């Protein structure tokens, strides 16, 4: 998968304009969501991959534009990480 994060002011404005035109949601530059991807517990990992949903996982976090095209994706943080904590890494 190839993803291209907007790099200029004009590209970001286009993303924002598309959100407003398509969804009547002004000033948005992306929609963010995450998903726990179930895994087999790595050896000697303790609780690092054990999440609040009570299974072992890695976390996928993604940002999409108004047409659901990926602008950014990150996969692989330990399942115990909070959504906010993912952006710190």
Following the backbone from N to C, one meets helices and strands in this order, namely HEEEH
Oligomeric category: single chain
What is the molecular shape? elongated
Radius of gyration: 16 Å
| Strand segment count | 3
Strand order of the largest sheet: 1-2-3
Uncertain segments? none
Q: Averaging pLDDT over every residue, what do you get?
A: 90
Let me know the largest β-sheet. 3 strands, antiparallel
Number of helical elements: 2
Structural class: alpha+beta
What share of the residues does DSSP label as strand, in percent? Answer: 25-35%
Ends distance: 22 Å
Describe the protein in words.
This protein is an alpha+beta fold. It has helices at 9-23, 83-86, and strands at residues 31-38, 57-64, 70-78. It is elongated.
Key terms for this structure?
three-stranded antiparallel beta sheet; 89 residues; 2 helices; single chain; alpha+beta; elongated
Draw up the topology in text.
Elements: H1 9-23, E1 31-38, E2 57-64, E3 70-78, H2 83-86
Antiparallel strand pairs: 1-2, 2-3
Write a short abstract of this structure.
The protein is an alpha+beta fold.
């Amino acid at each position: 998968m190839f993803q291209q994060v907007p790099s200029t002011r004009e590209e970001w404005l286009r993303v924002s304009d598309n959100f407003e035109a398509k969804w009547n949601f002004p000033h948005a530059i992306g929609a963010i969501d995450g998903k726990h991807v179930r895994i087999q517990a790595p050896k000697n990992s303790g609780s690092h991959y054990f999440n609040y949903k009570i299974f072992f996982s890695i976390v996928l976090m993604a940002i999409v534009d108004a047409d659901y095209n990926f602008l950014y994706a990150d996969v692989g943080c330990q399942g115990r990480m909070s959504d906010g904590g993912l952006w710190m890494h």
